[in-house]
UniProtKB/TrEMBL annotation:
UniProt domain GST C-terminal: residue ranges: 83-214
A Pfam family hit: GST_C_3
PROSITE patterns named in the record: GST_CTER, GST_NTER
PANTHER family: MALEYLACETOACETATE ISOMERASE
Record protein name field: Glutathione S-transferase rho
Domain (GST N-terminal): residue spans on this chain: 3-76
Classification via InterPro entries: Glutathione-S-Trfase_C-like, Glutathione-S-Trfase_C_sf, Glutathione_S-Trfase, Glutathione_S-Trfase_N, GST_C, Thioredoxin-like_sf
Organism expressing this protein natively: Cirrhinus molitorella (mud carp)
Length: 217
């Protein structure tokens, strides 16, 4: 079953990492995979992530995660609950992670994406304010679910699969803990989960410390 699956991925890419966590949670260890180098632009010829299962090809990470859950529903961790209210919350948190990732990137990778001559201190300040507001939103979500809970309740779900790879950037890029104490508790609770440890970005293992671009948030 797993041998019929092929994943093209990049190390540290949140979209790739969430598909890899989903594969682990669905007990699909042993799938074929190819690590593509961002530095060598290898991902330009192949969309990342790309999940192939037999003749089926999925190029979008949310779609790939949902495809794995639906195709292997009875296998491994149940990532989408049956209860309509619980399901709605999982879907909402899942797709809200797009906002968190976008606002984190706009601060953490500002100098990477914006040419030097176009950089403005006022723009970076605004980006930081937007990210701080977004973090407050997620802090509120975790406060509501209660200590020791996951993003959408008491059970690990697809919301956690897609959120953790983004959350992991905050400690890596030295975000002050006081900015997001509940998110950091959540990170500590999940970082040793088997599916997350098994899919941890290899270059993060080689170099545990990342840039300090979130240090002054």
């Amino acid at each position: 079953m797993a041998q019929d699956i092929m994943l093209y991925w990049g190390s540290g890419s949140p979209p790739c990492w969430k598909v890899m966590i989903a594969l682990e949670e669905k007990q699909l260890q042993g799938y074929k995979h190819k690590l593509l180098s961002f530095d060598k632009k290898e991902h330009k010829g192949e969309e990342v992530p790309t999940l192939k299962h037999g003749d089926i090809v999925v190029n979008e990470s949310f779609a790939a995660c949902l495809y794995l859950e639906n195709t292997f529903k009875s296998q491994g961790t149940r990532l989408i609950p049956d209860d309509p209210a619980e399901q709605a919350l999982v879907y909402q948190r899942m797709f809200e992670t797009e906002n968190l990732q976008k606002k984190m990137y706009e601060v953490a990778f500002y100098e990477h994406y914006i040419p030097k001559e176009e950089r403005l201190e006022s723009a970076l300040k605004r980006n930081k304010e937007n990210l701080i507001a977004e973090l407050k939103l997620w802090e509120g979500y975790l406060e509501k679910t209660g200590k020791g809970s996951f993003l959408a309740g008491k059970n690990f779900s697809m919301a956690d699969v897609v959120a953790f790879p983004i959350v992991a950037y905050f400690p890596r890029f030295h975000c002050p803990k006081e900015r997001c104490p509940r998110l950091m508790e959540y990170y500590e609770m999940l970082k040793d989960r088997p599916s997350i440890k098994a899919s941890w970005p290899p270059h993060w293992l080689e170099k545990p410390e990342g840039q300090d671009t979130l240090k002054n948030l």
